[in-house]
Amino acid sequence: MSTSEAPVEEKKESLNFIEQIVKDDLAAGKNGGRLQTRFPPEPNGYLHIGHAKAIAMDFGVAEKFGGVCNLRMDDTNPQKEDTEYVEAIKRDIEWLGFKWGKLVYASDYFQDLWDFAVWCIKTGKAYVDEQTSEEIAAQKGTPTTPGTNSPFRDRPIEESLSLFEQMNSGNIEPGKMVLRAKIDMASSNMHFRDPFMYRVLNMDHWRTGNKWNAYPMYDFTHGQCDYLEGVTHSICTLEFVSHRELYDLFVTWMKQWRAEGGKTTVDCEVPIDGDIEDNRSRQFEFNKLNLNYTLMSKRNLLILTKEGVVNGWDDPRMPTLCGIRRRGYSPESILRFIDSIGYTTFDALNDIKLMEAAARADLNDRATRISAVIDPVKVIITNYPEGQSEELEVINNPQLVDAEGNVITEGNTHTITFSRELWIEREDFKAEPDKKFFRMYPGKETRLKSAYIVNCTGFKANEETGEVEEIYCTYDPDSKAGTEGANRKVKGTIHWLSCEHCVPAEVRNYECLWTCENPRDAIKQYEKENGVRGIDAMRPFLNPNSLNVNRNAYVEKWAAELPALTYLQFQRIGYYNVDPDSTPAHPVFNSTVGLKDSKGK
RNA sequence: UGGACCAUGGUGUAAUGGUAACACUACAGGUUUUGGUUCUGUCAUUAUGGGUUCGAGUCCCGUUGGUCCAACCA
User: Fold this and answer.
1) Residue A20's Cα: distance from chain center in Å?
2) Which nucleotide is nearest to A448 (CA to C1')?
3) Across all strands, nucleotide nearest A601 (CA–C1')
4) What's A190's domain CATH number?
5) What is the distance in angstroms measured between the alpha-carbon CA of A599 and the sugar C1' of B34?
């Protein structure tokens, strides 16, 4: 009997290298079997597709292995940060479908960081340096030559202590003093050459007000917050690899500080005793997202918005999550894309086509099919009575099928009106077709999707320009879609809209903003060779056709009333999305991505 | 010219010392009331030279190429 088939082979799910580490750590009982990650954006700008990759990792791995992921705003630099961004960040993460455990801020830990810094001074691990930034830079050495010690390196502890207090008093000018960790000015790791712990900013913080005038640096914040918060796996991108050694050093100092009675104001879960190696946060790095024909850096994105190259951060051409959302990508399509590119330690340049393919794959199942004519030309059905019209039922989504593979019609249709005068796509008619063209041309039968089979009998062209102005057809009344008479082989099916029953629409078609694969490198090189910076170095690589607005388009009336961000497929053209600016009176649609097109092959 | 990291089809990933696999792209073809979807097929001396091993994409050494590190940014 064939009932006892070979056991269904469990497809071994392959974990990425970080998931594997997490799995192994959990199995080994590290951190008491706890799993905690964090997503730590600096609230100084909008999240982009690169962040989506980090989000999918930080939240995803916690979800997958039963841990939690906190959202931590890395707000240690009040010069650049703003509460406006906090809300945008939260909205984008939620839109992607993730939930954080706790919402915390690096500034929640400022007091503990300060106390820890004081302990570092008292134990001879830190000192206040009063040199200028130029002097300090000169002493730092280079990657190939060792640095030299600051003359303040061995100043008395009491002196550093009182100076550190002054750094936070508001009476010290920024740049006059910094607190430095006393490590090794000759280290081959530049981050060990007495890194800065605190700098004077004399600035109010949007959360802590005027309490602080000296603020901790990234390296004296991130790992420390991880530790205090109980993060077990601190996952970040590859450019932080060289910070890891310092991260580890500070973690051991912190443990020592607490073991010697250091008190924290926040509730720290990490046990004071116990083997440090089994009870600490650890940093792991993966490759960040690079996309060809895309520029990701915040600095350059800011220039594009300031110079008016794009219309704001949520312009559908922007790689920001708000831009991509407005472009019409679903969160699922983004996650599908992220999943397809994986996590490794190889510095990859991903093909934007992978992202588009993910969008098509997801939107194919999600998007409602409608009829839209972007570049219209009129068709007159000469044997269809004037003044007559009829309602035809069309399928919203043919991908919706039952167990037998038949399209589900219930709740999956809407009506479209047919009449004597129609709009069709100008490129769907050719007066003189070439061999491979099989849409509409004189003497040929063509199927009007969901309607009738028509026969093209002629056309009228402008005498001067030769432009086709009207096309004439007769229809076969017995060929109505869904009836017996429609079951005839007709090569060529096109979409259409009844002139009287459709509405004008604005259709915005997009292409990549850049004409070169790697705009970042191209711009950098152009800056170097031509001595220009900013927008002037970007212009040569900007795609002049990145936005193509068509205001002469038509759509079904039904579609014009759909709410913003509805996922649509303009049948035979591509995926489109209702723009937030859209109104029933003035519908606006954004092209997400075109349908795969094998015309002319 | 210091240190750290990396190298598998066009692109990205998998193969955990034992048959180089998958997705996307591209191309060719079948099905189709979307030139869509779907289905089938085609596309690799694992950068390179040695070594260890019965056996190497995987381990070791060298070479070449690439990335990151010298902000009072994160």
Assistant:
1) 25
2) B33
3) B35
4) 3.40.50.620
5) 12
ipTM: 0.96
- Assess whether A479 and A521 both reside in one domain: no
What digits encode the pLDDT tens for the residues A406-427?
A: 999 999 999 999 999 999 999 9
Task: Decide: helix, strand or coil at residue A211.
Answer: coil
Give me the CA A452–C1' B65 separation in Å, rounded: 61
Confidence of residue A12 (pLDDT cuts 50, 70, 90): low
* pLDDT (tens digit per residue) in A138-196: 999 999 999 999 999 999 999 999 999 999 999 999 999 999 999 999 999 999 999 99
If you average pLDDT over residues A439-446, what whole number do you get?
A: 96
d(CA A278, CA A284) in angstroms, rounded, equals 16
Q: From the CA of A570, how many Å to the C1' of B22? A: 31
Q: How far is the CA of A593 from the C1' of B6 (A)?
A: 33
The model's pLDDT over A444-453, given as tens digits with 9 standing for 90+, comes to 999 999 999 9
Q: CA–C1' span, A470 to B29, in Å?
A: 37
Q: Give me the DSSP letters along A111-141.
A: HHHHHHHHHHHHTTSEEEE-S-HHHHHHHT-
As given in the structure block, the two tokens for residue A7 are 């056991």
Give yes or no for residue A273 having a pLDDT over 90: no
Nucleotide nearest to A132 (CA to C1'): B72
Do residue A87 and residue A166 come from a single domain? Answer: yes
- What pLDDT score was predicted for residue A278? 84
Q: What is the mean pLDDT of chain A?
A: 95
- In what helix (H) or strand (E) does residue A214 lie, and over which residues does it extend? strand A214-216
Domain ranges, residue A530: 298-366+512-541
Q: CA(A17)–C1'(B52) in Å?
A: 27
Q: Could you tell me if A147 and A128 lie in one domain?
A: yes
Nucleotides of chain B within 7 Å of a protein C-beta? 1-8, 10-16, 23-29, 33-38, 66-74
Q: Which nucleotide is nearest to A489 (CA to C1')?
A: B33
Strands of the A36-39 sheet, one edge to the other: A36-39, A68-73, A103-105
If phi > 0 it is left, if psi is from -120 to 50 it is alpha, else beta; for residue A576 that is beta
A543 three-class SS = coil
Q: Which amino acid is at A295?
A: L
Q: Give the residue among A246, A226, A244 at the shortest CA–CA distance from A34.
A: A226
Confidence class for position A200, pLDDT limits 50, 70, 90: very high
Closest nucleotide to residue A198 (Cα to C1')?
B72
A346 within domain boundaries: yes
CA–centroid distance for A65 within its chain: 24
